[in-house]
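Deliverable D5.2: sample structural annotation.
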Amino acid sequence: MTERADVVVIGMGPGGEHVAGELAADGLDVIGIEANLVGGECPYYGCIPSKMMIRAADALAEARRVNEVAGRAEVQPDLAPAAKRIRDEATTDWDDQIAADRFTEKGGRLIRGRARLVAPRTVEVGDEQIQARRAVVLNTGTSPAIPPIDGLDQVPYWTNRDAVRTTRAPESMIVLGGGPIGLEFAQVFARFGTRVSVVEAADRLLPGEEPAASEVIAQAFRAEGIEVLTGDGVASVRSDSQGIRVQVGARELVAERLLVAAGRDTGLGRLGLDAYGLDTSARTLDVDRFCRVLGVDGGPVEGLYAIGDVTGKGPFTHMSMYQAEIALAHLRGDESLDAEYHAVPRVTFTDPEVGVVGMSEAQARKQAVPVRSTSVQVPTSARGWIHGVSNDGVITLVAHAESGMLLGATSVGPRGGEVLGLLTLAVQQRLPVHALTRMIYAYPTFHRAVLDAAKQWLAEG
């Protein structure tokens, strides 16, 4: 059977749901297709539930710090309240009916199933084909990537989806992957009493960030009793009556649970991109400034848009929503809004938090951009000194060596993600570093360390 619609949206994660819902509210005939949960990874397995767990774990850490700064406190970790909150508030027990109704009440039609492109503007779901009169929007997101490790498919490993569903912290855990997802969960479970080892094949944690940020986090983890193993990948995995055994270099680690947090898979090879003459082996899709997919000739493919993780611009909910607004405007005939990606912010919600925007020094040098960087330690600032316990952090500025324009920044600290707001604005507006020295900073605040870093950058020049 063949149906027709004005617009077909494949993948009803945050961005896809927004585009589909707004166009349906405009009066267009819109079909949204979702193979899993309407709302996507963020509310059910990603941003919301994981940060609820982090909030609970941070509360435990702060309670333990009472003994160092304010008296005595006894802490008895229990994951059950956080697990209940996740089910009650974040995901309604992994039932997406509220989100589905939110879309259909705007006039959209929802089809559940896995979609595949079979011809330009033609989508197949099961035995049904849908032809889009105007456009197809791809927002298929990602799923946990499972590395090809010997024996991994024979053991009951967890991904982030299993981790947020648990109601009990395991006695021990091995985390495979030292990126944001792995580190956030490693610290959460450690604070709930789990003995945790983190394994990262690269030579440092958070290998995509500035080395100074990696070092702060590694030191913080070791101080909390989390074992950090870098520079060796996992050779093999097996399980027996003692638990899951992971071979890392010459060592064999044993734990009750293995959490695989080794990146994300876009799964574009299953989408039928050859229907548009696109590379079916591509990991991401190139898009233009209006989020139209670019073809092999470099020009936009007629009637095909992509937003979110599959564009490779950043696997973040805020990126999906940003691109959704751009694609939505263009579909409405408005070309006044277009995409810029020079100031994309991201936060790893460890304690301390790691906020990053724009280019790292290594990225700038790889692109032959002349840069200078400088770093100041958060504990040397007035607020850092006042904060005392758990005040680890660093502010790093990366700026053009000649013009002084701020190209990137890193904010690690107790409020690193919030301090990032100031730095994101500066990078977005292409401000020179000296402009950061001409502001009045509230005293004493964490973001005042930005002033120290800016003055130091200028002094070192």
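Annotation notes: The longest helix spans residues 47-69. The chain has three domains: 2-43+91-142+266-331, 152-262, 345-460.
The annotation will be released with the project's public dataset once the embargo ends.
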